[in-house]
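Late entry, evening session. Most of the bench is empty. Finally got around to the prediction I had been postponing all week. Sequence below, unchanged from the version circulated by S.P.
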Amino acid sequence: MKNDTTPQDAAGATDRRAVWHRQRIRMERLGEKHTPNGRQATRHWDLFKVLLGAFDLGLKLTGLHERGVRNALNIKLTCLELAFTDLPAAFDGFRILQISDPHVDFLPATTEIARGLAKDLDPDICVITGDFKRGFSGPFDHILPALRDLISGISARHGVLGILGNHDTADMVEALEDLGIRILVNETRTIERDGARIHFTGTDDVHYFYTDAARHALAEAPGGFKVALVHSPELAGVAADRGTRLYLAGHTHGGQVCFPGGRPVITHLTCHRGYASGLWRHGTMVGYTSTGVGVSALPVRFNSRGEIVLITLRRQEQA
């Protein structure tokens, strides 16, 4: 992995991260929700928790709770080949392993299952697209051993990149990086092969903690083949306008609880709700929203299967 930074650039990056950290921690402590569409109220969570409790009780009374837990543990490996005419020839066959929303402290067995699925894949790079933990705040030391076990089983030539989700705190970054997960905070990392490059730009969560720094990071990414790592698909339009070719997201769990046929009951998206799971396109940009590994709110899934995703990039010759 290439890091084209001078000492001055490195100092600037450190300063930008310090500014980001102060701003993010302030939003966390105040319980503010900032989205690309502006600041939004969070009062609906009280009603949501009441409805969630009623739904959980209903599952237990009808005997469906155990089935939902079994569904949550039925994680799959999804393999995709995505072709691009502008992919540098040196990256034909480049493999990206995406792990999203592990929530390792909610239903711990899901992390172990994901580790088993990932251990023999031998990707070129692994990306973890946010929501490492369960709670929106509080301590995080307890999740580190499980994350260490997860990434220790992944042999990725160019290492592991990660971004924060709305369940993650800014205070986690140093600890995650100590594990070997390079967290991208509104910044870009470049991989070089035979003189060719692809660029991975990762933003902070934009569902709860959006700032214009996320938009600027996408705009300032170097020219060439660009991959965006954003916790939710809510910045798809911005990324496409900035020439991004591939957008990888999570956050929605594919709905986690869906109607028959897979239509989510709730997406937890403020925009681009049609991009709640699977492959999608926005202009010339290809996107994929993973259903994720873990679960949140309740340890169940219905009509939405968890996954890890192995994406193989292919160069498509122009006609």
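Two things to note before I forget:
The mean pLDDT is 93.
The helical segments are 7-30, 44-62, 65-73, 109-118, 144-152, 173-179, 212-220, 236-241.
Will write this up properly tomorrow.
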